[in-house]
Amino acid sequence: MSLVGALDAGQSALSIAQAGIQVTGNNIANAGNADYSREIAQTSPSLEEQLQPGIFLGTGVDLTSIQRQVDDALNGRLRGAMSDNAAASTNQQWLTQVQSTLNALSGQDLSAQMTTFFNDWSSLANDPTNAGQRQVVLQDGSNLASYAQGLQGQLGALQGNINQELQGQASAANGLAEQVATLNRQIVVAQGGTGGQANGLQDQRDSVLKQLSQLLNTTTIRQPNGEVNVYVGSEALVDGETNAGVSLVNKTDITTGVTSPTLVFTNTNGNIPVTSGELGGLLSSRDAVINVSAQLDSVVHNLIGAVNQIHASGQGTSGYSSVTASSQVLNPTVALNQPTTGLSFTPVNGSFVVHVKQSSTGLVTSTLVNINLQGNPNDTTLNSLAAQLNGITGVTASISGGKLTIASSSSNEQISFSQDTSGTLAALGINTFFTGTNANDIGVNSQLTANPTLLAAAQNGQAGDNQTALAISQLNSTPLASLSGQSLQQGYQALVNQVATDTSAAKQNATATQAVQNTLQTQQASVSGVNLDEEASNLMQQQRSFQAAAQLITAVNAMMTTLIAMVT
Question: Average pLDDT, stretch 8-26?
């Protein structure tokens, strides 16, 4: 027992009070920093001094560590919630744009365009020889085609914007992963195997991990040396000080054969199993846009096919002197129903009739053209069809660049068609209303716009006949097998309804995930956040401790002075 021992105890108390005040000051200074974890000074009694057997006397206090107040499990759950919310919010944002693009509530969407177009055919059926109404049909058909192309173009632009965003966010994710790897290295060096914590660096790393989780669905595993390994699914993105890298490359799906930008690990080129985060939301949104685009193509493809199927068997108020197919056959030597022809619409076994009319006499000669597509060696090819047509009096047929041209042999003769049960004329693009195959390239046949008298309203060749116009006018509400029994109007409305449902669900999901994130952030703040009232209380306690330690030292100093004076 000595005054020196008491002085040492006072000095340690003074030092601990100073350290506590500094920690509290640091907490107060970072009260507004969302990425800061509150720190506390951990102390323990110094080793006791044995005065005599069974009697030990305390020697003061030691500062053992400055610890961050964190809950790693809670932080992991929060990062997962942030990832889910980022995905949901991103998905909602892009689906809302898709819904706006379809413009279903405006009264001027594709549904309205189709209704106007088919109503025009109904009006033409009431007066099939009316030249003005023919122009209206052609004009509104052109408007419909332009609208469909424009709509598909907007969807394509959305897809392009998403791909651009993917590129930027993939680069950002790669940069954040590299920061985690760098901070891992710095933390290991700073801690140097002492068992202490580099609190500032760990706060920085937690902040980066939080940002990374907003881009990717990540999980983390803390290592004994202070490093944190980051995984996406079961694959390591950051392993200690090594970043596997995040890249966006064009890859072909082995199932669908579609090539699209894909997220991969830079070092292995293996696909990153992204399920959430902004990148997950972007991928999901891109898939949604692709799906909407495909469904739009399906509706427009069926529109083209259904209208052309009827129109190709109809007649206008005049016939053709020459008509060239708008569709190219890639291989004229194979059966017309084979995929290698490249035709978007497939003919079937059947026939059609070619009519040759003498302009001077009005005499009409009709010839049945058989289309044999039964899987036999003598199935109809483009070459054999041209040969068969060349056998008809008054008709010549030729092929150039895979396109069939049918012409009259004399300027005094006109050609028309009817009763095509095979769909060959429509498939080849002969006597059709529309050209193209989907929303990207739909258009009105230029031969009709150049000569509206070729617009087919009749089915029996008589000027006053309206059967073709009437049949086309009913297509908007006619169930089509190729649309699973839906009409064109129902097919498009199903697309609009699906987008509306998906957008509403995305909005609800974004709201729900935000609520979960807010709850977890509140819980985290209660653990790691700085409470200024609590810090003010701590500061007062530390101030009093400092004052008491100072008084102890003053008292011991006075006692030592007295003792020295007595000795001398």
Answer: 88
